[in-house]
Amino acid sequence: MSPFEYAPAPESAAVVDIASSYGLFIGGQFVPATGGTPFKTVNPATEEVLAEISEASSDDVDAAVAAARTAYTRVWSRMSGADRGKYLFRIARILQERAREFAVLETLDNGKPIKESRDVDLPLAAAHFFYHAGWADKLDYASLGPNPRPVGVVGQIVPWNFPLLMLAWKVAPALACGNTVVLKPAETTPLTALLFAEVCQQADLPPGVVNIITGAGPTGQAIVDHPGIDKLAFTGSTAVGKMIARSIAGTRKRATLELGGKAANIIFDDAPIDQAVEGIVNGIFFNQGHVCCAGSRILVQENIAEDLDRRLKRRLATLRVGDPMDKNTDVGAINSRKQLDRIEEMVAVGETEGAQRWDSGCELPTNGFWFRPTVFSGVSQTHRIAQEEIFGPVVSVLTFRTPAEAVAKANNTPYGLSAGVWTEKGSRILWMADQLRAGVVWANTFNKFDPTSPFGGYKESGYGREGGRHGLEAYVTTAGPLERASGADRSKGASK
Ligand code: NDP
């Protein structure tokens, strides 16, 4: 072994107890599904089957919505904000206590490196519950409007890239505001949501406040179409987001949609170049690039393009791709065969369109789904790899000469979720942030998340915000003038 090779540092899978099959979590207990066809969830790093998962039928969706409605009317919407907050604090603390178990399970089911599930997903998921626990009894002071009250029963559909974290983004604000939820995790990553159901039991959460039902697209569609749902919260592809928007048009349902992105990570010639390289690596190779706000387009000022290219490739050659359970791994497995096929298809398109492909050439494991960190240079604005979400460890490099050109190119996509700016000039950062049509603009950093900070997009990246005070708005309704004039009973108010 050379002095610079890493010894293996495997995390132990023995800290989790995975059942051979799972039912649905409805009304506070696990129940068998009625009618659906069970499916398997696999470890994408090995293709081993982890467990058999139930498919919720429309009857099961009905039962989950009914349980959520009963819990909403009889218990949760009547409870004081201070008491709701206590449950949320309890959930947050349990997540911290069981963090290792959750992190291992997330890595086994999703393929992301253990150091990311341990250091990012879990701390942030707990932080979302802590943060929203604090709001539960202060909603009257959150500038949400007069007498903020819960919306009702919320349908929540989350994707596979941050399974537990996206659950936390959705469940914590909904519960803090007095709503009850029916949540569906993605077909390929249901296990941490099912473990979260156990946390709800452990926290003595009243039955029916959180219901977790598993299945694929049709189960999600049944939630979307259910007449008992008052609000939908969805994170996933723009295509499915558009279908949801069409399905609920003309109904009373509200929705927040957090969809795709094609973020520009903009590097000016006065940027601290080595830090910018780290920012690029974090921007696109974190979580295998399965990140809606990933910095998947580098816009680099022309006079430093060659230097950046050299430094970036030198850095990428050091990334460790492989066993996600090894604590030294930087890039784990692609989440599914379907996603790997999509990445391969888009990379082939990039080559056909004439961009130059480079990859790190690292060795890949023989089983499982893998893709090497890849850089495309010579990319132009019209290339599909500069316009469409690839959702994998693939970055496209484009150049610019002036700040105005950088802005024009950065904004030239159907999306508008995030962007990064790297420069020493504070005034330029502020000017760029003002010009960029992106919900989040990071300056001299990338992929920084905090529950106090609202997150969401422009254009086809969706609508509504999650996190921060703004994220609460989607989960409350406020009194109209008539109700205010009559001094309506506030005993059922969201924050009393
Ligand atoms: P989807 O949008 O299909 O999946 C997101 C969630 O929506 C999953 O829980 C999925 O269920 C569910 N779903 C699927 N169809 C419907 C429907 N008709 N009604 C309601 N819910 C539905 O994403 P994919 O997994 O197909 O990924 C495709 C592409 O989407 C990726 O390549 C990536 O570009 C993008 N994507 C973006 C994400 C983001 O965070 N912005 C997250 C995930 C994907 P199930 O998975 O069980 O079928």
What does this molecule look like?
It is a single chain. By secondary structure, this protein is an alpha/beta fold. Helix content is 38%, strand content 16%. The strands form five sheets. A seven-stranded mixed β-sheet has the order 14-15-16-13-12-17-18, with helices on both faces. The protein has a six-stranded mixed β-sheet with strand order 9-8-7-10-11-19, sandwiched between helices. The chain has a three-stranded mixed β-sheet with strand order 1-5-4, with no helix packed on it. Strand 17, helix 14 and strand 18 form a beta-alpha-beta unit. Helix 2 packs antiparallel against helix 4, helix 3 packs across helix 4 and helix 4 runs parallel beside helix 5. The longest helix has 22 residues. The radius of gyration is 23 Å and the shape is globular. The termini are far apart. The C terminus is likely disordered. Bound molecules: NADPH dihydro-nicotinamide-adenine-dinucleotide phosphate. The site of NADPH dihydro-nicotinamide-adenine-dinucleotide phosphate (NDP) has 25 residues, from helix 7, helix 8 and helix 11.
Index terms:
496 residues; alpha/beta; 7-stranded mixed beta sheet; disordered C terminus; binds NADPH dihydro-nicotinamide-adenine-dinucleotide phosphate
Q: Structural class of the secondary structure composition?
A: alpha/beta
Which ions and ligands are bound to the chains?
A: NADPH dihydro-nicotinamide-adenine-dinucleotide phosphate
The parts where pLDDT drops under 50 for at least 5 residues are 484-496
Q: How far is it from the N-terminal to the C-terminal residue, by CA?
A: 64 Å
Q: What is the 3D shape? A: globular
Strand order of the largest sheet: 14-15-16-13-12-17-18
Overall strand count = 20
Number of helices in the DSSP assignment: 16
pLDDT average, as an integer? 95
Taking all Cα atoms into account, the compactness measure Rg is 23 Å
Sheet bearing the most strands, described?
Answer: 7 strands, mixed
Per DSSP, what share of the residues sits in E-state strands of 2 or more residues?
Answer: 15-25%
In helices, the fraction of residues equals 25-40%
